[in-house]
TrEMBL record:
<dbReference type="InterPro" id="IPR008391">
    <property type="entry name" value="AXE1_dom"/>
</dbReference>
<dbReference type="InterPro" id="IPR050261">
    <property type="entry name" value="FrsA_esterase"/>
</dbReference>
<protein>
    <submittedName>
        <fullName>Dienelactone hydrolase-like enzyme</fullName>
    </submittedName>
</protein>
<dbReference type="InterPro" id="IPR029058">
    <property type="entry name" value="AB_hydrolase_fold"/>
</dbReference>
<keyword id="KW-0472">Membrane</keyword>
<keyword id="KW-1133">Transmembrane helix</keyword>
<keyword id="KW-0812">Transmembrane</keyword>
<keyword id="KW-0378">Hydrolase</keyword>
<feature type="domain" description="Acetyl xylan esterase">
    <location>
        <begin position="94"/>
        <end position="222"/>
    </location>
</feature>
<feature type="transmembrane region" description="Helical">
    <location>
        <begin position="30"/>
        <end position="48"/>
    </location>
</feature>
<dbReference type="GO" id="GO:0016787">
    <property type="term" value="F:hydrolase activity"/>
</dbReference>
<dbReference type="Pfam" id="PF05448">
    <property type="entry name" value="AXE1"/>
</dbReference>
Length: 319
């Protein structure tokens, strides 16, 4: 018995080394401090502008921007009111450009559908108001913008930018259209699930591409517009960068990405700027649902013969 007692005594006398000042990582004060840091980081993140304006062009030439582009800071420069609508002159930043637009909101006690209007080359934002008045009479809001370069394009200049890894101007013009959609989405007077794009001439090209990129857009109506048929134009060319760029600016590249939303095209048989045959070729490549209207009124751009089908197609898109 005594031997066992002695053994226990020896074991109890083995010294235990203690590290002065060291405390457990699971100390309540440490846990509270860590949680405080996480909460602070979350608050900082939540108030920072979210979203991205990064661009990418796939190997097949399809341009893409993220669907989460972040909130837009909108400046209201002028407001005019009548009994039937409110007309606001607004501006907002889109990459390196300040977009100006005319936002027309019909008087309503509920959220209304809305339409982005992209004018043709050289046409200012004021040139969108003929369509805007029609849309307002139907109970739809609209935002017609002043496109950068007044809608004019320079593919050779843009191709050189693309070769250098810089964002082409035509890509930025598509992004401008997407940011215009974002302005409407965040407006409390607009139904964010009922936004479409109408584009004339060059504006119709950007409208088709923007609609293909953003699946939230309800549909697109192209007036007096067409693709470039770059597949034929680049046949026999081996330069992959060249082909990739020119596909990226061609609406024909994006036609398969619009469905199941609807593509509508309207064209005058008298159009000498973009012949109706070119529009028909583009339309043929599109998937269903789609509709083509050929009219005998006017020449290039919207004309009275397009009004009834335009109204009918918008009703279908927003129903």
């Amino acid at each position: 018995m005594s031997k066992k007692k002695d053994k226990r005594k020896v074991e109890s006398e083995i010294p235990v080394k203690k590290i002065p000042g060291k405390r457990s990582y699971f100390d309540p004060k440490t846990i509270a401090a860590v949680l405080g840091v996480f909460i602070l980081l979350f608050l900082i993140y939540s108030i920072m502008p979210q979203g991205s304006d990064q661009w990418n062009v796939r190997k097949d030439g399809v341009l893409s921007y993220t669907e989460n582009r972040g909130r837009v800071d909108v400046n209201v420069l002028k407001t005019e009111s009548s009994g039937n609508y409110t007309l606001e002159t607004i501006s907002f930043a889109s990459k390196d450009y300040t977009v100006e637009g005319l936002l027309r909101i019909p008087s309503s006690d509920k959220k209304v559908p809305a339409i982005v209007i992209l004018p043709g080359a050289t046409v200012p934002k004021e040139g969108t108001q003929g369509l805007a008045e029609i849309f307002s009479s139907l109970g739809y809001a609209s935002l017609g913008i002043e496109q950068r370069n007044r809608g004019s394009v320079n593919p050779d200049y843009d191709y050189n930018l693309f070769k250098e890894g810089k964002e082409p101007v035509e890509h930025k013009m598509v992004f401008d259209a997407l940011r215009t959609v974002d302005v409407l989405k965040q407006d409390s007077r607009i139904d964010p699930k009922k936004i479409a794009i109408v584009g004339e001439s060059n504006g119709g090209r950007f409208a088709i591409i923007a609609t293909a990129i953003d699946p939230d857009i309800k549909g697109v109506i192209g007036i007096s517009t067409s693709g470039y048929d770059m597949e034929s134009e680049t046949a026999g060319i081996r330069d992959e960068t060249f082909i990739r760029f020119y596909r990226s600016i061609d609406p024909d590249t994006y036609l398969g990405l619009i469905s199941p939303r609807k593509l509508v095209m309207m064209h005058s048989v008298n159009d000498s700027i973009i012949p109706i045959d070119l529009a028909g070729r583009t339309f043929k490549q599109a998937k269903e649902p789609k509709q083509f209207y050929s009219v005998t009124t006017g020449s290039h751009g919207f004309s009275n013969g397009m009004r009834v089908p335009l109204e009918d197609e918008l009703r279908l898109m927003f129903q």
